[in-house]
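Reviewer comment 2.1 asked that we show a complete input and output for one of the modelled complexes. We chose the uridine-diphosphate-N-acetylglucosamine case, as it is the one discussed in the main text.
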Amino acid sequence: MNILVTGGAGYIGSHTAVALLDAGHSVVIMDNLSNSKAEVVANIEEITSKQVVFYEADAADPVSVERVFKAHKFDGVIHFAGYKAVGESVEKPLDYYYNNIVSTMLLGKNCLKYGVNKFVFSSSATVYGDNDVPLDEDMELGKTTNPYGETKAISERILTDVAKANPNFAVSLLRYFNPVGAHPSGLIGEDPKGIPNNLLPYITQVAKGTLKQLKVFGDDYDTADGTGVRDYIHVMDLAEGHIAALDYLTAGVHIYNLGTGRGTSVLELIQAFEEANQIKIPYEIVGRRPGDVAATYADVTKAKRELDWEAKRDLHDMVKDAWHFEKRLGK
Ligand code: NAD
Ligand code: UD1
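Response of the prediction step:
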């Protein structure tokens, strides 16, 4: 298949581009590089020894989007492009609503106009709000707590309505849990700007000495060791989940959790990192981070049953590959 990958120079998009090329698909990347670098595209090509068509272009700009659809015959679109920082979305709600929702609408419109029937969307476990774990696709969604989460919930609704109105349109809404790690080559990975918000990128920067010590946000949650529990998933497993979603996509709307189904606490992740990489991570316990929940993890039975997909890599692979990438960054 020939697949348009928006946001393909970003963290998850670049790994998915590798997985698509490895599976024999062709890839066209559209990315405005607002949160990534052009060299990522060269690294995708180096890893796979295959060529990628790259447009440095804005998925929220009608002219740019149509130009790309006119120039290629696509079999499907995977839409990663978007802003994703929760805190920033509270400060700049319009930027988030505009970028994340307009891009979804424009891609949908062009799919209908140019006869592209497969659409895979990057959603997030954040749409569940504060719900009981394990989170499953059939449960009623909770209230989102920030504009970023709301852009995901709204995009899901828009695509669902488009599929209802167009019986040939096939949509897969993929709700990611906590993607971590990197391609084992160390050539692509997560390279956040500034001080990382997320746990594992923070840990790798402490390991490197860029940051002094980790702050553990709360040890008084109702979890086994009191620290927050999340469902960390290796980014290559997540990438492969997209290939499965495309392979099995049929008309209508299909929703899947992409996670491992296992919860890991902050202290367990620190310990896994220390053991796998033989590096001590200094940390202190501080107060809870506002907006955090105690535990989230996925019910992954639907993806296994319908897509024949499940995460294969374990915590050891995640923390090892994350560190391998960070070391190669050389900052
Ligand atoms: P990322 O920032 O690394 O990648 C997003 C890419 O999209 C970047 O390369 C950026 O330059 C590009 N982009 C942003 N707006 C664009 C636009 N208007 N036009 C073209 N390109 C644009 O983020 P990521 O972690 O790879 O996330 C990919 C998608 O998955 C996002 O939609 C994100 O919300 C979603 N998601 C991520 C996580 C996570 O933990 N990383 C969790 C759940 C969902
Ligand atoms: C964050 C986002 C969420 C997004 C998810 C995956 C917020 C409020 N939520 O959630 O929308 O879908 O990332 O990208 O930003 N922790 C520390 N110290 C740190 C950083 C994190 O103790 O320096 C703890 C957190 O309290 C949490 C766990 O580590 O218990 C994981 O945090 P994080 O990586 O930010 O992921 P989420 O909280 O799931």
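DSSP finds eleven helices and 13 strands in the chain. We note this here for comparison with the apo prediction described in Section 3.2.
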